[in-house]
Structures are given as structure tokens and as C-alpha cells.
Design brief:
By secondary structure, the chain is an alpha+beta fold. It folds into two domains: 137 residues, Rossmann fold (3-Layer(aba) Sandwich), CATH 3.40.50; 134 residues, Sandwich (Tumour Suppressor Smad4), CATH 2.60.200. It is built from six helices and 19 strands. The N and C termini lie far apart (48 Å).
């Protein structure tokens, strides 16, 4: 018997669809492990503190990108395939929508799908020589100036080589998957998920020559606030965060466990997805 994970957005319509889908899955002989997530609330933290069962066949996510990111955190470092079903506004991480849920569910249960690994970043926060926090992110890690009126002064190193001191509202370090999230809104480039890279995007930099930068995914990035800088915050996939000071060091490198994203053979490719989600116009040549 297959055991299926079902992560559901705290939304009336999503819950209604989840009820129908759960009964359908059980009718197919599958056991269902269901969680309802409000990724903006404290309840999400309690849910994702408990790892997903290791014997899950796959995870279906009924919600938007925020719910998908919560489900990724729930899976952790396990190689459990995951599929997003759009219920949010944009749904860059969704493979299908609610109208096709039963059809897609049937294909997945029959094994009629492919897996595309998506790179993640491993982030460590070091204070006084001790690692006090470690997170894995699918989209991005963001350093911002918090409630301070002044600019953040963010010293950035690539493989221990000093790159620059960003004077900006903040700095986004993203994966190719995350390049279409906050980084894109801040003026960063769109990077195909198959490109092995990490993107650094300053947020409203004071120096206009500080532009977004793409680096290889095998480097280590080290970030530290300049001395006497105002306190700032670091957030992980926009969901959890911590206050930081100039005594803290943040290290970022490619994670060792990519997330296993389910894709369907007859679905549009990445470029069609971009055109749809970003509402690009123009005809095919």
C-alpha cells in the first residue's frame, strides 16, 4: 500500500478539495498522512518541526508557493518526491491545478512521472565561533535591515575572497528556483533551474554599480554585517528568521540534498511556464 503525504493550505477551498482527494486516494488503496499548514502562523512551525515519515511514496501540496516551501521543510533531507497543486496567486512551484488533481493523482500512483531535482542551499548562522542555527532553503536566504532607518552594510565573501560591502536595504542569496521569487522582484535575473548557480541580488543598493551577480554553485558565500552596523534580520525561504548583529557570520553553500520535484511528461516545459506565469506576450515563431 502506498503512503501519501497531503499538505493542505489553511484555506476553505483547498480543504474542501483535499477532503475529496483524500477519500479518492483511500479508494485507490493508499494511506494518507495529512497536515494543514498556515505558513504565516505559529502552527506551521510546530508542524515542520516534525519530519515527514520516511516511507512516504510522495507528497501532494494543495496551496500556493508558501505552502509548498513549508512542505519542503517538512520533508527535510529525505528523497521524497513532491508535487505542487496550485491554489495560490502565482504558483511558480506548482505542477498542476485543482481541476486536474484526480487525473494527475492517478498518473502519479501509476508511476507515470519524472523526477527533476531542485538545488537547495544550506545556511549556517555562527555566533562567537558556535553554530547556533542551520537551515536548508529551496528559494532564498535574505538579509535585510529590519526596522532600522539606515542602510545595511553587508560584507560579502566568495570562497574567503572579499567581494564587496553592499550598502543596501538588504541582500538576497537565491537558488535558480528562487530566482523567480523575491530576487526577481528586486531586479535579479531569471535563472533556469538546470543552471548550476547561486544568485546574489542586492535590495535597493546605494551604489548603482552593485548589480545582481551569478556565481557557481560550488562556492561558499560568507556574509557579515560591517562593524557598528544596525541590527538586521536573516530569513529563510521567507518563513522563519532571526535577528543578527555584526558579531554573527552567515555561511551559505549548496545543500547536499536537492528536493525531488515531480513533473509530468505531457506538461509544458519551463519556458512555457515562464510565459504563462509572467504573462509574457508575443507569438511563437
Amino acid at each position: 500500500m502506498n503512503k501519501i503525504g497531503l499538505i493542505v493550505k489553511a484555506d476553505v477551498e483547498a480543504r474542501k478539495q483535499a477532503d475529496t482527494f483524500e477519500k479518492w486516494l483511500q479508494g485507490q488503496g493508499a494511506a494518507v498522512v495529512r497536515q494543514t499548514i498556515d505558513w504565516q502562523a505559529e502552527s506551521e512551525r510546530a508542524i515542520t518541526n516534525n519530519a515527514a515519515p520516511s516511507d512516504l511514496y510522495c507528497v501532494f501540496v494543495l496551496g500556493g508557493d508558501g505552502t509548498f516551501l513549508s512542505a519542503v521543510r517538512w520533508i527535510g533531507d529525505q528523497d521524497i518526491p513532491i508535487l505542487g497543486v496550485k491554489f495560490g496567486e502565482l504558483g511558480f512551484l506548482a505542477e498542476t491545478d485543482d481541476k486536474s488533481l484526480l487525473t494527475v493523482g492517478g498518473a502519479v500512483l501509476k508511476g507515470q512521472f519524472k523526477i527533476k531535482p531542485r538545488m537547495r542551499l544550506r545556511v549556517a548562522l555562527i555566533r562567537e565561533g558556535e553554530q547556533i542555527c542551520q537551515e536548508t532553503v529551496l528559494n532564498d536566504v535574505v538579509i535585510n535591515r529590519g526596522a532600522s532607518a539606515g542602510l545595511a552594510h553587508i560584507r560579502t565573501y566568495i570562497d574567503a575572497h572579499f567581494l564587496t560591502e553592499y550598502r543596501a536595504d538588504g541582500l538576497i542569496v537565491s537558488t535558480p528556483t528562487g530566482s523567480t521569487a523575491y530576487s526577481l522582484a528586486a531586479g535579479g535575473p531569471i535563472v533556469h533551474p538546470g543552471v548550476n548557480s547561486i544568485v546574489l541580488t542586492p535590495i535597493c543598493p546605494f551604489t548603482l554599480t552593485n548589480r545582481p551577480l551569478i556565481v557557481p554553485d560550488n562556492v561558499e558565500i560568507k556574509i557579515q554585517l560591517a562593524e557598528k552596523s544596525s541590527n538586521a534580520n536573516v530569513t529563510f525561504d521567507g518563513q522563519v528568521g532571526r535577528a543578527i548583529s555584526d558579531q554573527d557570520i552567515i555561511t551559505i553553500r549548496k545543500g547536499s540534498h536537492p528536493i525531488q520535484v515531480i513533473t509530468l511528461p505531457d506538461h509544458d516545459d519551463y519556458f512555457d511556464l515562464l510565459k504563462t506565469k509572467l504573462r509574457w506576450s508575443g507569438s511563437r515563431v
